[in-house]
Amino acid sequence: MSKGAIISNVTALLLALALVAGCTGTPLMEAARRGDLTEVQKLTQKGADLEDKGPITADYLTPLQMAAYRGHLKVVRYLLSKGADPNARGAYGANALDLAAEKAHYDCVVALVQGGAKVNQQSYFQRTALHGAAIGGDTKIIAYLLDHGAEINAKGYGGYTPLMVAARHNKGAAISLLLARGADPSLKNDDHKTALMIARAKRSPGAVRALGESAGLGYGGRGAAGPVGQSVHDRSPGPNPAGKLGF
């Protein structure tokens, strides 16, 4: 292939990608995004596809996932009643329950679980709803998921457990709850870091306090990872391929 042909093909590809990136979701997805229940009802009555994610963009989500992510409970309940799949995978393989848990939409989490969402379903990066809840830090959601069978020490991308994720995001209350419910603080991720080491490297005082107290160190104490607040040069596993759905 000539140099000119290659340039032409690359230009065409870039133009196509630009056009796709500029596309919005399906009408049903956009109505779900807005929380417009009346429009959602009209579109579904006209036969709109409940599982259509639209163009492959960053918002590659089903209408149910979009409604769950935005916290539109009435739309979530309606779509479930019409047969929307609560375990469908969207961008990065995340499901509606994971998205609702991360954004701390408790009522949506309950509706999804009651509607058949699998509590321990993993994304393409092994993330579960409990990992999402640990990012959001909502203890009510964390407790609910655990009460409904969530695996407390599930390992996601990079070997991160929900406890490590909570430590990374400085969610002290979430850490205390996870520990009280049996999370193992001695587990290490793929970089051989425990939750406490991660919290110290991220300079997360609330997380360090919760983890230090559980280890009998007390806030301001010293442990194997050094004094509280000291950077232990927590090495990142590299660019996070999960983007906004990562840890």
Q: Give the CA-CA distance, first to last residue.
A: 43 Å
Rg from C-alpha positions?
Answer: 21 Å
Please name the fourth-level CATH homologous superfamily of the largest domain: Ankyrin repeat-containing domain
Number of domains: 2
Compute the number of strand runs: 2
**Would you give the CATH topology of the largest domain?**
Serine Threonine Protein Phosphatase 5, Tetratricopeptide repeat
Describe how the helices and strands are arranged.
Elements: H1 3-21, H2 27-34, H3 37-45, H4 63-70, H5 73-81, H6 96-102, H7 106-114, H8 129-136, H9 139-147, H10 162-168, H11 172-180, H12 195-201, H13 205-214, E1 222-223, E2 226-227
Antiparallel strand pairs: 1-2
Helix pairs in contact: 2-3, 2-4, 4-5, 4-6, 5-7, 6-7, 6-8, 8-9, 8-10, 10-11, 10-12, 11-13, 12-13
Task: Explain how this protein is built.
- The chain has 247 residues and is mainly α.
- The protein folds into 2 domains: 25-118, Ankyrin repeat-containing domain (Serine Threonine Protein Phosphatase 5, Tetratricopeptide repeat, Alpha Horseshoe); 126-230, Serine Threonine Protein Phosphatase 5, Tetratricopeptide repeat.
- It has 13 helices and 2 strands, in the order H-H-H-H-H-H-H-H-H-H-H-H-H-E-E.
- Strands 1-2 form a two-stranded antiparallel ribbon.
- It is elongated.
Task: Give a short summary of the structure.
With 247 residues, this protein is mainly α. The chain has 13 helices and two strands.
Keywords summarizing the entry:
disordered C terminus, Serine Threonine Protein Phosphatase 5, Tetratricopeptide repeat, 247 residues, mainly alpha, 13 helices, 48% helix, 2 domains, two-stranded antiparallel sheet
